[in-house]
Amino acid sequence: MKKRFGKRVAALLMAMLMVIGLLPTGLFGVEDVKAADTTYILDPSAMTAASDNELVEGVIGEGFFKAVGTVKKRVSSSSGAVYAVDLDKNEKGGIEFTVLGTAKVTVKASSTGGSNTSVFGLKDAEGNFIPNNEKITKMKGSTADAVTITYDLPAGTYKFMTVLGIEKNPDDATGEQDLADKRGCRVVYMEAIHTTSGAVAARKEWSSVAAPVLGTPKAENGKITVPFTMDISYDGADSVKVSMKDSAGAVIDTKTYSQSGNSGSVVFTPTKTGNYTFDVVAIRANETDKKGASS
Fold first, then answer.
1. Cα–chain-centroid distance for residue 290?
2. From CA 193, how far away is CA 127, in angstroms rounded?
3. Which pLDDT belongs to residue 200?
4. Of 222, 211, 210, 224, which Cα lies nearest the Cα of 278?
5. Are 91 and 180 in contact (CB under 8 A)?
6. pLDDT for 119-153, tens place per residue?
7. Which residues contact 181 (CB under 8 A, 6 or more apart)?
8. Radius of gyration of the chain (CA)
9. How much is the pTM?
10. What is the mean pLDDT of residues 230-258?
11. C-alpha angle with apex 178: 56 to 139, nearest 5 degrees?
């Protein structure tokens, strides 16, 4: 009995030491487990496109990154391969992602042409500008001249984009034009390495998320702006699609909106006058689309 009791005490002691990290878990036949860094990559060269400037929509880059606003694939005229994605000016296009613990994020970015200068940067969910480790905020040149910048980020949601309010356009004679108002920027590569993990709460049940609601369309200067309300977030939808139909019920155009928030709008440009109606659906990966009432 004493011998058995001694073994039991020793086993309990070893278990306690392993829990508090004082004993290597590779000893005594226990598997040595090392916490591996989780890496997510957004590589435009792995994308395909039917044509240059094709829109990028929704979740991309191994499901970690998300295209919001106007993001377009750039295609080589010689090889037909995608080589980068362009983010629209004025903070109207960006790459959004959420860090769950801590992460090191690397971005390779450039301007949109050899003689062009672009501003780029990162903002958190509250709209605060986050400086990169290299303190770089603008770049002149195209893809071949791309610079690499890095961030060490705590938990939170972030968006990489052309940031307003940090650089003036050097080519503006008045010196007053915001550089982000002049042109967008280009992303050649992005990588996020989670250096510590974080707890991931389950997404809200899709069945309990309210359906999208269309507002009143507004026609002005040959364009129709269609507003809507919908929760686009981790707990809500990934994106919203609004379709425009002609008087015969045929879909003639569809717009996708994926900017995080509770409301948004899309703009259509009809090629001719007529009576149009609009349908809206909210989309979440691996779920049935949630349809709202037509307008």
1. 22
2. 23
3. 62
4. 224
5. yes
6. 999 999 889 999 999 999 999 999 999 999 999 99
7. 89, 90, 164, 169
8. 25
9. 0.72
10. 93
11. 65
